[in-house]
Specification:
Layout: H1 4-13, H2 17-29, E1 36-39, E2 41-42, E3 45-47, H3 50-66, E4 71-76, H4 86-92, H5 104-110, H6 118-129, H7 133-138, H8 142-150, E5 168-170, E6 173-176, H9 178-189, E7 196-203, H10 208-226, E8 229-236, E9 243-244, E10 255-256, E11 259-260, E12 262-263, H11 271-275, E13 281-285, H12 297-325, H13 331-341, H14 348-351, H15 354-365, E14 369-376, E15 384-389, E16 395-400, H16 410-414, E17 418-419, E18 423-427, E19 448-454, E20 457-463, E21 476-481
Parallel strand pairs: 2-3, 3-21, 4-7, 4-13, 7-8, 14-21
Antiparallel strand pairs: 1-15, 5-6, 9-12, 10-11, 13-18, 14-17, 14-18, 15-16, 19-20
Helix pairs in contact: 3-12, 4-8, 6-8, 9-10, 12-13, 13-15
Length: 503
């Protein structure tokens, strides 16, 4: 299938030939739908802690930090903000200045003064057109105003990483970006006993310099604002996680300029970056799910709740493993714990005996652990929580995207009560303190294929199993209900006009 020049290119990217061949085979076969036992709901896969449970979790989290516990915040921040400004680009590329208030552009124009980047817009308009913003508004030059937001000669917001856009206005200080807010949130939830906050951002190679420049001024400002010390690291998606593209018939590699064509493997590629983090506990949260100081109380509380609940689960797992290794017969209690607290079950729990059962139980306990916050479904797009059947026949909690759910399960999908806001905390070291190799716990059959194009030619592209989907398939998982107030993503620029974000 591959020519000598192809083999050399694969070698240069660190991609094994067998890996590329497996991807091409997957284009031909497709990815299977996930077999589903049921939607995770309160009392059936989703834990609702209540007041006492939340207080116990918060106490355990605070104790973890006070005892020198190590924690990182891991924030995927690679993407440009182009989708955030899709409606604005369409308007600029149109042929009219008319923008009814019912449209996204009309809503934006009606609330210009509420935008956190209004001062930058005033400067851009004056620089480009030699006129004041108010003069352009009065003259009905809407397209020129919107162009000043998204185009390179203006603010260039359509091409910048979302992490570096101004999201929130504050009295008496500059507007903050998502990066600024992630630093502040980290100081309130993840400072260790020494007052140090560790954050890791994944960035694209072409934006790395911008991140470094922003951090050079954001970190000192955050240290003054919060009284904490920050350690911030950056990484890029590894070339070895790029996926090969196929032709539209799925039977041959797609070539561009007579060379294999690769695409980024999606956020599932970041399991490699997460695997490089040397910490026991890691919080993961999307870059755009941030709020200003005045709305952060719920976020801070439930970060501690899910962190502490994870520690309580970890405590129990460590006790079971220690007891098993000491020769104690705790299999029945451990199985009950997995069934009740982790929604993990296996027919072999009832059929195996003796050392075979002990070995199975220990292997199920000794895995990376995650607790995922889940919010009530209020119509937001995104993946959802389910109990699924795994390749080994066991069942466990998984986060599925709609593309992973077959038509036979659509009614079950419609009855789901919660969805995934991407707010999770992970324990990625074993009870002995050694790091798990997270790449061993990925289900390779959980990616998906989509149709893309390059220079007008259609192709088929493959995304790797998602970071919090199939990339964490073989983890121990618990879902905990968190309030919708903790979920405030900015997917379009108009989301900045929602109450949680506006002045």
């Amino acid at each position: 299938m591959f020519r000598q020049k192809d083999l050399e290119l694969l070698r240069s990217k660190g991609i094994a030939v067998a890996q590329a061949e497996a991807q091409m085979k997957r284009f031909a076969t497709g990815f299977p739908y996930m077999p589903i036992v049921g939607a995770a709901t309160p009392g059936h896969g989703i834990t609702v802690l209540g007041g006492d449970g939340e207080r116990a979790a918060i106490e355990r989290w605070q104790r973890y930090l006070s005892e020198g516990g190590d924690v990182y915040k891991f924030v995927p921040a690679s993407g440009a903000a182009s989708r955030m400004f899709k409606a604005l680009f369409e308007f600029v590329n149109g042929d009219t200045d008319e923008a009814p208030e019912s449209t996204p552009v009309g809503q934006l124009m009606a609330n210009l003064d509420e935008l956190p980047f209004i001062e930058d817009l005033r400067e851009a308009v004056l620089r480009i057109y030699g006129s004041l913003l108010d003069e352009l508004v009065a003259a009905g030059r809407t397209r020129d105003i919107i162009a000043a937001i998204v185009n390179p000669e203006g603010m260039n917001y359509g091409q910048l990483p979302k992490a570096l856009l101004r999201f929130h206005a504050y009295e008496g200080e500059p507007s903050r970006t998502p990066l600024d807010e992630q630093l502040t949130e980290g100081a309130q939830t993840a400072a260790n006993a020494a007052g140090e906050v560790k954050l890791h951002f994944t960035v694209s190679a072409n934006h790395r310099r911008l991140f470094e420049e922003k951090l050079a001024e954001a970190v000192p400002a955050a240290e003054v604002r919060t009284g904490r010390k920050f350690t911030v690291t950056l990484s890029e998606q590894k070339p070895s996680t790029d996926t090969i593209a196929a032709n539209i018939d799925n039977d041959e590699p797609f070539l561009e300029n007579d060379s294999l064509f690769f695409r980024p493997g999606g956020h599932g590629a970041l399991i490699e970056n997460l695997n490089d983090i040397d910490a026991a506990v890691v919080f993961i949260k999307n870059i755009d799910n941030v709020v200003p100081d005045r709305h952060r109380d719920a976020t801070v509380r439930y970060k501690q709740v899910i962190g502490g609940y994870m520690m309580l689960l970890h405590d129990a797992i460590a006790r079971f493993i220690a007891a098993i290794d000491a020769g104690e017969d705790v299999t029945a209690e451990a199985i009950e714990f997995m069934r009740h607290s982790l929604s993990t079950d296996d027919k072999r729990f009832d059929t195996l005996k003796g050392t075979d059962l002990v070995r199975l139980v220990r292997s199920k306990l000794d895995r990376p652990l995650r607790v995922c916050g889940m919010v009530r479904n209020e119509g937001e797009p995104g993946g959802g929580p389910y109990i699924t059947v795994n390749p080994d026949g066991s069942s466990s909690l998984q986060i599925l995207e709609s593309t992973q759910i077959g038509p036979d399960y659509k009614d079950m999908m419609a009855g789901a009560t919660h969805f995934n806001p991407v707010d999770l905390v992970c324990y990625i070291k074993n009870p002995a303190g050694a790091k798990y190799d997270l790449t061993r716990y990925v289900d390779p059959a959980t990616g998906f294929i989509s149709q893309k194009s390059s220079h007008g030619r259609e192709l088929r592209a493959m995304e790797l199993p998602g970071l919090w989907n199939g990339a964490m398939s073989d983890w121990n998982t618990a879902f905990v209900e968190v309030p919708v107030e903790t979920f405030n993503p900015v997917k379009t620029v108009n989301d900045l006009l929602r109450p949680a974000h506006r002045k």
